[in-house]
Amino acid sequence: MRLELRGYFRTPDTVFFTFLFPVLLLGIFGAAFDSSGDVGTLPDGTGGVSMSTYYLPGLVAAGILLSGVQNLAIDIARERSEGWLRRLGGTPMSPVAYFIGKAGMTLVTALAQTALLIAFGVFVMGVELPSEPALWLRFAWLFVLGIATMTLLGVALSAVPRSSRSATAVVLPIVLVLQFISGVYLQFTMLPEWLQNIAAAFPLKWLAQGMRSVFLPEHFAAMEPGGAWDLGLVVLVLAGWLVAGLVASLLTFRWQRRS
Predict the structure, then answer these.
(1) DSSP letter for each residue of 179-205
(2) Across the chain, which distance is largest between two alpha carbons, in Å?
(3) Residues paired with residue 49 on neighbouring β-strands, in sequence order
(4) Can you tell me the distance from the alpha carbon of 32 to that of 50, in angstroms, rounded to the nearest whole number?
(5) Cα separation values, 148 from 33, 124, 125, Å
(6) Contact assessment for residue 159 and residue 69, using Cβ atoms and an 8 Å cutoff
(7) Which range, 3-17, 61-75, 245-259, has the best average confidence (pLDDT)?
(8) pLDDT tens digit string along 174-194?
(9) 35-47 burial by CB neighbour count: b if 16+ within 10 A, else e?
(10) Whether 57 contacts 212, CB under 8 Å
C-alpha cells in the first residue's frame, strides 16, 4: 500500500483527474449556478439547498468511481503492457499482496478525496452537512459498498485495453459518459426516459442516488424516478455489480499482455 500510494502521488496527471477533479468541479458548478438560488424549495419557502449542496453527493459518488474504476483500470493496464506485472511475478511478492496494495491505495485515496471534497464544500462553498448520526452511518456503508464495487470493476475493466497507450482512450469515455447520464452533473429526471433506463443498469446512478439520500433533505426523494430513495434497490444493484466485478476479474485478469 505504501509503494502504491507513493507511486500514485508522484504522477500529477493521475492525482488531478482522479483526486482533485471532483473538488474542482464542485467549485465550478457551485460558483456558476449560485446566482440561480436554492433548489428544491417547498411551497412555504423552506427546505431549499444551495447548488453546491445539491452537487456534492453526486460528486462524492463520482469520486469513488474515479478512484476505483478509472484509476485502477488505467494503472493495471499500463503495468501489464509495460511488463511490470510479469516482473513482479518473479519477486517474492504474492498476487494477494499485489491486490491488497491496489485495493488499499484505492481505499485511502478515496477516503482522502471524499474528506477533501466535503471540507471544501463546507468551508469554501458553504455546504450544510447532515447532523443525524443515522445519515452518517448510511454514508459509511454506502461508501464501503461503493468503493468495493468500483475497485473490482476497475480490475475487470483493466483487461479491455490492449496497450498502455489505449488504456486512457478506452477508460475515460466510459467513466465520463456514466457521470453525465447518472445524475452527477445533470438532474437525473431531466434526462429522457430511455437514457434513464440505460443509466439505471449501471452502479454509478444508484450510488449517486444513495449519496443524495444522505446529504439532501428527505423531500428531495420525490425528485427521484421512483419518488423514493429506494435504498434496498441501491444495495441490491451495487451488490450485483460487486459480484459481477469479482467474477469478471477472476475470468479476465492476466499477468501478461495479450499478443
Answers:
(1) HHHTTSSS-GGGS-HHHHHHHTTSHHH
(2) 68
(3) 39
(4) 12
(5) 33, 30, 29
(6) no
(7) 61-75
(8) 999 999 999 999 889 889 999
(9) eeeebeeeeeeee
(10) yes
Give just the sign of the alpha carbon dihedral 162, 166, 167, 173. Answer: negative
**Count of Cβ atoms closer than 10 Å to residue 6 Cβ:** 10
Q: How far apart are CA 96 and CA 103, in angstroms?
A: 10
pTM here is: 0.93
Please give the span between the terminal C-alpha atoms of the chain, in angstroms, as a whole number: 30
With a cut of 70, say whether residue 258 has pLDDT above it. no
As given in the structure block, the three cell numbers for residue 41 are 424549495
- Name the phi and psi angles at 123, rounded to 5: -85, -20
Q: Any residues with CB less than 8 A from the CB of 126 and at least 6 apart, and which? A: 50, 52
Show Cβ contacts of residue 192 under 8 Å, excluding neighbours closer than 6 positions: none
pLDDT in tens, 41-55: 888 878 889 999 999
Alpha-carbon gap, residue 136 to 142, rounded angstroms: 10
Q: How many CA atoms lie within 13 A of 97 on its CB side?
A: 9
- Give the whole-angstrom CA distance, residue 119 versus residue 130: 13
Asked if residues 70 and 17 have their Cβ atoms less than 8 Å apart, the reply is yes
